[in-house]
Design a protein that fits this description.
Strand order of the largest sheet: 5-4-3-6-7-9-8-10
Number of strands: 10
Strand content: 25-35%
Order of helices and strands: EEHEHEHEHEHEEEE
Helix content: 10-25%
Radius of gyration: 16 Å
Largest sheet: 8 strands, mixed
Structural class: alpha/beta
């Protein structure tokens, strides 16, 4: 849930910012639930179409999964995963006001989720647990993909899925032993789902199975 290029969050007092709009959970037990979108410059929730495509890809992996939403923003990716069967989520967001809004959303849903108001890369260095599914959608202007991908390596369970979102003209370099499962593009973004090593069966795109495209 990154912010759009060339924008940074406004200074925050640490209280939950007033919502100026909403994003909607589109599937699972909380389907139709609206989450407030805080008033932050450049906050860019993943679109409903992209999320619907992504969670169709993820359907077999969600039941019982431990999820990390590393640049959480509104938290809709991590909370959507919980809605669809994931067991637990950790939401990391450096902006204190956004983190406060995330805590309110978690409390509203009684969701099995932790919220950490922290710098994502520093937070990764201090952890020792692992995750089955990671959402990696950092602020585009900050160029954090390489650092985040490096920091994730020891935090991934065998066969973990990693979702990576970036501008349409940027394809972050992932570890060589990751397998690209699916990818798609809109006019603004590239979104891709990878599989880390350690799984029993390799599932990749077939030659006749083109990447998804969302207009």
């Amino acid at each position: 849930m990154s912010r759009s290029p060339h924008s940074r969050p406004a200074p925050s007092s640490g209280t939950a910012p007033r919502g100026t709009g909403h994003v909607r959970i589109i599937g699972g037990r909380w389907r139709g639930t609206k989450l407030a979108v805080p008033d932050r410059p450049g906050l860019r929730p993943s679109s409903d179409r992209v999320r619907e495509t992504l969670f169709n890809w993820l359907m077999p992996a969600l039941p019982g999964a431990r999820v990390l939403d590393l640049f959480a923003g509104t938290g809709v990716l991590g909370l959507e995963a919980l809605s669809r069967g994931a067991a637990q989520a950790v939401l990391v967001e450096r902006d204190p006001g956004l983190a406060s809004a995330l805590r309110e959303a978690v409390a509203k849903l009684s969701a099995p989720a932790e919220v950490h108001a922290a710098d994502a890369l520093a937070w990764l260095r201090g952890r020792h647990d692992t995750f089955d599914l990671v959402f990696l959608d950092p602020p585009f202007a900050d160029g954090l993909w390489a650092g985040a991908l490096d920091g994730l390596a020891p935090r991934l369970a065998p066969g973990a899925r990693v979702y990576v979102e970036s501008p349409g003209d940027i394809q972050p370099v992932v570890p060589q032993d990751w397998v690209l499962h699916r990818e798609g593009r809109t006019r603004e973004v590239r979104y891709a789902l990878y599989r880390a090593p350690g799984h029993h069966a390799t599932v990749t795109l077939r030659a006749d199975d083109p990447p998804a495209t969302t207009e």
